[in-house]
Amino acid sequence: MRAFAADSAAGRPRGHHLKEALLSTEISTWTRQSGRFVWALALGLSLAIGAPQAGQARSAPDSFADLAEHVSDAVVNITTTTVIAAQPSGPGNLFPEGSPFEEFFREFNNPRQDEQRQRRGQALGSGFVISPDGYIVTNNHVIESADEISIEFFSGRTLDAEVVGTDPKTDIALLKVESDEDLPFVEFGDSEAMRVGDWVMAMGNPLGQGFSVSAGIVSAKARALQGSYDDFIQTDAAINRGNSGGPLFDMEGDVIGVNTAILSPNGGSIGIGFAMSSNVVSRVVDQLQEYGETRRGWLGVRIQDVDEQLAEALGLASAEGALVTDVPEGPALEAGMQSGDVITAFDGRPVEDTRSLVRQVGDTTVGKTVPVTVIREGNEVALDVTLGRRETAEAVPAAMTQEAPASEGEILGMTLSTMTDEIRQELGLSDTAEGVVVRDLDEAGDAFAKGIRAGDVIAEAGQVPVADLAALEAQIAAAKDAGRKSLLLLVRRADQPRFVALALDGN
Fold first, then answer.
1. Is 339 tagged catalytic?
2. pTM
3. pLDDT (tens digit, 9 = 90+) per residue, 234-290?
4. 276 touches 251 (CB < 8 A)
5. 232 assigned to some structural domain
6. Is 80 within the bounds of a domain?
7. C-beta separation of 176 from 135 below 8 A
8. Does the annotation count 70 as an active-site position?
């Protein structure tokens, strides 16, 4: 963590480290309070700044004043202005061009008056400087659609900013200001190293009140709100409107999160705030700084989580991994991945669920060839996949099997029929769509309880394509012969696939 331009009276060089400055301050403070200093030594406490060893509790700080003083110069208030076009102020263009009344009414429609009547909507937020040459991090929603962005520093100085790049998926934006001198800045810490219960400090511009500090603890980690790449730190440090984009500091003065959202019934802080973790933000910022955009890896599969029933139906030892429901044209298909594969490892790291896989793939360099381990029909298969780029990927529907004769019957609590051209037209399916169509269900049955509905198409059973009822019944019999308690179905709805495990008991 670096400190900023030194106080000439203190005689410190430019760019001295914040941790060194904080350590010096703490030692001098404790030296003045000799009784407390001796007490600390008697307990065997270290004066050095650093993370406590595992299992060692860290007491609440007496004050956040030293930390706030040393990082405040790098925290900024952000004001955005959006110009909203004015409505015509006069009677409008009532007469055709060249009319003798045109000049008379022109003064009622003075364009300069309309310019003056344009509304300039303003919004407030926060941010922080991450480099001496003026790069600033904030939330994307703070600066989205802004025509002008003004940065106010703790000293009162203001500078205009330009947008370098944004990432709506993580709600992060990178700005740049131009300055004749080096700017105070802060650095990212390791959010993964934070533990629930660690002390944190938030800074920003809540409700437009100006620079403000609040403190609390890490309430939870790895929170997901709605995005595929969410990795939020939950904190009870007060975060309000206007804090968006501001830093969440650890006790070393490193940024371990970007304050982004609150959970509140009334719009005010109730002690449930969320900061996007620094390990996510720093990767996004690096790409925005280098490319002006994000470049995330893309595997090219549709996936779903593995629950206990799916694990049993697939013969897996545990409900872990990401189950592949579809493999459109893309990197995974080229590498030989198949629908029904369960991805258990990616680039040497275990895959716990779909969320972890999406994060791992997105964090991997575009064009890199990575080893991927899948479970296929009970066997472990190793694949090498060269990743594409998510931002430019276009999924292509996979080809299906050939048409089968029509028939209808009751199976597993569902009324089913074989696909026909008439049904394809009725359901708005492609001419090549194949499978067994659900026409009706027993609402007391397992299929209805698992979310299957009329109009769904069963494309596979037991990871084998089914084109008619006979093929489905054959897979049911095979599963029972193998001692399975459930049968794995690949169900498509509006061309969106998912796997469903249906109980075979009593069928």
1. no
2. 0.63
3. 999 988 878 899 999 999 999 999 998 877 666 666 778 899 999 999 999 999 999
4. no
5. yes
6. no
7. yes
8. no
